[in-house]
Amino acid sequence: MRLGAPGHGGFCVGRHEGRVVFVRHGLPGELVRARVTEDRGGSFCRADAVEIIEASADRVPATCPVSGPGGAGCCDFSFATPAAQRALKATVVAEQLRRLAGVEREIEVEPIGDEVVGGWRTRVRLVVDAAGRAGVHRYRSTEVIPDLRCPQPVAGALDGVAERSWTPGADLVVAVDGDGVRHIVELAPAAEADRAGTRPATPRGGTRGRGQRPARHRESGRPADERGAVRDRAAARKSATNAPREEWVMAGSGRAVEYVAGRRWELSATGFWQAHHGAAQRYSDLVAEWSGLEPGGSGWDLYSGVGVFAARLGEQTGQTGAVSAVESARSAVADGTAALRDLPWVQLHAGRVERWAREATTTPDVVVLDPPRAGAGKEVVAAVTDADPRRIIHIGCDPASFARDLGLYLDAGYHLAELRAFDAFPVTHHVECVALLDR
Fold it and tell me: How many domains does the chain have?
């Protein structure tokens, strides 16, 4: 089949015998032979391009040996030039904005720092198979591929990991911090593994701690008559995986040191931090540029993590101003409070963003939101717009949820003043978008 435009999720759209086919490992305009990988009936199926009959001029030798047809889902576009990768993402962002927010806008996806295809990721999440080997999940599967040759991690991040035996069923978090120190933390197998009897009584060395951010697994494709059972098992997996998990520090201290705008943070190596080594600084600079805050002003930083954006807002408002930051992870709030102790007018709150924003009585000058991949949603956007800030800075790592949230702001009477998109996840289909909205 001849491939058409890219779709949201790392594939191109083709058609065969009247059906839509979502084809991975191909580029727009290419003529490919594709093998169906998932077909549940209906109007579409999924496939891998297993032979390139007529190649695009943008095609290059793949830089990731793990993610080809039948492989992992780590590097969706490792076979395309960096410029072509960004063009694919720009097309997807523009289409999502048009379809979900009614916004017609030309998009340019910008690199963060120097143009790279590898060596940018400072945070890596791995899974451990039943034999104790670290690896990654096969695309749309829970099967583990024990191959760590993906080019994304920074140099040295995975040295020796493949040669070591780990706790079967555990997850591994590898973090290389701002001082260049590598931390490796095992997350104990989820409760579902406990019930199956696959968790050993003790970890393979290391120190213990409390888990913070649970792993997430994809449901694999199954025939239609098994979907109910699959959904039940997926729900059980999600419930088990979201339960608190013990942490065992296997290398480093388990406390990562990071720097943004001259400020030092110390946080759990398993806590949230931007994966791209240059992303936190880039977004922080943009927030400071767009906020418009002056001494004595006020702001909110929602889904604040350790308060990277709150710090920039607080520095702008000065001690006569007021900044509130809200984050559900109490450990992140504690770490952020320690990092911002010289800014007592910046208050970090532990709680659910939707509840805090709904109950807040202040009127901020600016609100910054960096929600999870699912987006902020109607309740949070309504609470923010009801607070009537002059400016809203919204950050999103999923074009679809970002566009849906953007549409809600527009419906509430806000205007899209600026929009930037960043290639914060090179060789993948992921892209970070930042919007400035005002009245």
Answer: 2
